[in-house]
Amino acid sequence: MGERAVPPSHVYSRFCRKLMEHIDEIEKIFTRLVDEISKLLPDYGRILAVDSKAINSLSRGKKQEGAS
Questions:
Q1: Closest to 45 in 3D by CA, of 57, 59, 35, 32
Q2: In which domain of life is the source organism classified (predicted)?
C-alpha cells in the first residue's frame, strides 16, 4: 500500500488538536515514563537517536559548487 496507507493530513491535524486538549496530562505521563526508564537504564538520554518516516520533500537538492 505504501504512501496510500498514510491517512490524509486533516486526520493528523484533528488528532493533534484533540491531543493538545490534554497537554498537562500528556506531559505528566511523559515525565513519569522518562523517570521510570532512567531508573532502569542509567545512560538513557545520553545519546540522541532520531527516527524518520516517509515525508515528501520539497527540497531542490544540494547546490552545485560554483552555481549561483
A1: 35
A2: Bacteria
Dihedral, CA of residue 40, residue 45, residue 47 and residue 50, to nearest 10: 110
pLDDT digits (tens, 9 = 90+) for 11-20: 999 999 999 9
H helices of 3-47, in order, are: 9-20, 23-40
**pLDDT single digits (tens) 39-59:** 999 898 888 777 776 666 666
User: CB–CB of 47/40 below 8 Å?
Assistant: no
Dihedral of alpha carbons 26, 29, 31, 34, sign: negative
